[in-house]
Amino acid sequence: MEIERSGPGDRTGLVLFAGKELLSAVREHAVRHRISEARLTAQGAFSECVVGWYSFEQKQFVDTQLEGPVAIVTLAGYISQRSGITHVAIHGVFTAPGGNCRAGHLRSGIVRSKLLVSISIDH
Description:
Elements: E1 11-17, H1 22-32, E2 38-55, E3 60-82, E4 85-95, E5 101-121
Antiparallel strand pairs: 1-5, 2-3, 2-5, 3-4, 4-5
């Protein structure tokens, strides 16, 4: 999708299909369209994903691998730039087979069939 730049509140989006990795696709889109600050949401499912939480004691992320299908219950994040480098941070709640939910930082997510991403650009 292309961006219509008309002022504050510009929107863009992505439609990702099976096999694409969400974080890298959003980062590539942000770099290509020079998006330096934005908020995002998404709907869809992953075939697999890694969700993490930050351990202050260990000073690192503790990751949990979820095998699919993994439904996205809610997903929100942001795009930012630090020292000229584009960063994407996404948090979410996910449900794996059996209905158990996991929440945390999305560390990676491979699209199962189709995933819709909505991006609201901040100016």
